[in-house]
Design brief:
Layout: E1 4-8, E2 15-20, E3 25-26, E4 36-40, E5 43-48, H1 54-65, H2 87-98, H3 108-122, E6 131-134, E7 153-157, H4 160-164, E8 173-177, E9 190-196, H5 205-215, E10 216-227, H6 233-247, H7 260-270, E11 273-286, H8 289-299, H9 314-328, E12 335-347, H10 377-383
Helix pairs in contact: 1-6, 5-7, 6-9
GO molecular function, one term: oxidoreductase activity
Domain Methyltransferase type: 132-223
Subcellular location: Mitochondrion
Length: 384
């Protein structure tokens, strides 16, 4: 796509010209636990936004220090269900994204995260006769699995179109149209439950984790990935600063996400044991802020919070683009968007699992640890 878009703010305070080049994505091959950069192809981006306001500069410094201001997190208390997201809107967004003719070009992030979840399944040296993918979308996990590891897969999603356009896999699959918050399965059914980039749109996350725990067999494992609280901080700060400058206040444009500090507590409250939580930062480079928002829409990941703002003013959008470039822009004219991905592993308890030693049963004092490598007096005599 080679479109020349020229926008000019008539007051002379903001001028923005962009030349978009072919929009393709190169998927990285990178070890787990590292920061990854996915790049959109070449872009020429010329932006001018004079920042001559002392109020604007003070706000700019404030947001550099506190980039996660006004984030709302899920409650980690038992029974702390919240009604944050419009689930019917999320269903419509996913349906629209699945019907796009060029939907494949928006799958780079979900493909990458799905492969990393699959890698964590391969790390467990066992075969799973029956597995469930919660919020499978187009089965980004199953396509990376083999029938030697998973013998049968059940795929659930709220979007029928996503399930119809699922990716091919050698594993026998069964598709079920179901909400992640209401799993239609009996207790102790599955040996493995996985989920990739779906749980961050759930209102009752503690309840969803308890349901996942319930449908697992004893000694079954849950492996999931979801978006964390630091995701898209560049976009959030740029939009808030632009609205403060142009409109005197701001509304939330990026959905609230779960904090990594809460995730372990939520898994523990749901009944999981032997917990593992780790983080990956995936950074994608775009021609500009409009491309960030356009790709989020193509992924079906647009904001669906009830308190979202339905429209952005044109001059606010132009100001946000210039702020984004000024604060976070790269030398080549592109801008980064950071996705914090939280990975979690939890096991349903079973008597065969390793258990912590009884309190007070240790026979070595911590005070003795420092003398382990020191030679004793008898050893010194022998050496002489």
């Amino acid at each position: 796509m080679n479109n020349l878009i020229s926008n000019r703010f008539q007051s002379g305070k903001c001028m923005c010209r962009r030349l978009f080049a072919t929009l393709t994505v190169r998927s990285p091959v990178s070890p787990l636990g590292t920061s990854v950069a996915l790049h959109r192809d070449a872009v020429t981006d010329q932006t001018h936004f004079p920042m001559n306001s002392s109020i604007f500069l003070s706000l700019l410094n404030h947001f550099r220090l506190r980039r996660t201001t006004h984030q709302r997190h899920f409650s980690s208390r038992a029974g702390g269900a919240m009604n944050v997201f419009d689930r019917s809107m999320k269903r419509k967004q996913k349906k629209w994204a699945a019907l796009l003719q060029d939907s494949e070009k928006y799958e780079y992030l979900k493909e990458e995260v799905g492969s990393r979840v699959a890698d964590r399944v391969y790390d467990i040296a066992r075969t799973f006769p029956l597995a469930l993918d919660v919020g499978s979308s187009r089965s980004y996990i199953a396509e990376h699995m083999s029938k030697e590891v998973v013998e049968k897969f059940f795929l659930t999603d709220i979007s029928e179109n996503s399930l119809k356009h699922r990716k091919e896999t050698e594993i026998p699959t069964h598709c079920i149209l179901a909400d992640e918050e209401f799993l239609p399965f009996k207790e102790n059914t599955f040996d493995l439950v996985v989920s990739s980039l779906s749980l961050h749109w759930i209102n009752d996350l503690p309840g969803a984790l308890r349901q996942i725990h319930q449908v697992l067999k004893p000694d079954g494992v849950f492996i999931g990935a979801m978006v964390g609280g630091e995701t898209l901080y560049e976009l959030r700060c740029s939009l808030q600063l632009a609205e403060l400058e142009r409109e005197g206040g701001f509304a939330p444009h990026v959905s609230p996400y779960t904090a990594v500090t809460d995730l372990g507590n939520l898994l523990g409250q749901a009944g999981f044991t032997m917990l593992t939580v780790d983080i990956d930062d995936i950074q994608v480079h775009y021609p500009g802020i409009l491309d960030v928002m356009h790709d989020l829409q193509g992924m079906g990941e647009s904001n669906c919070a009830w308190n979202r703002k339905s429209m952005l003013h044109r001059d606010t959008m132009l100001a946000a683009a210039a702020i984004y470039q000024e604060m976070y822009g790269n030398e080549d004219g592109s801008v980064p968007a950071t996705f914090e991905i939280l990975y979690m592993i939890g096991w349903k308890p079973h008597e065969s699992q390793a258990k912590p030693a009884r309190r007070g049963s240790a026979n070595v004092s911590f005070g003795d640890l420092g003398r382990i490598n020191k030679p004793s007096s008898t050893d010194s005599t022998k050496e002489q």
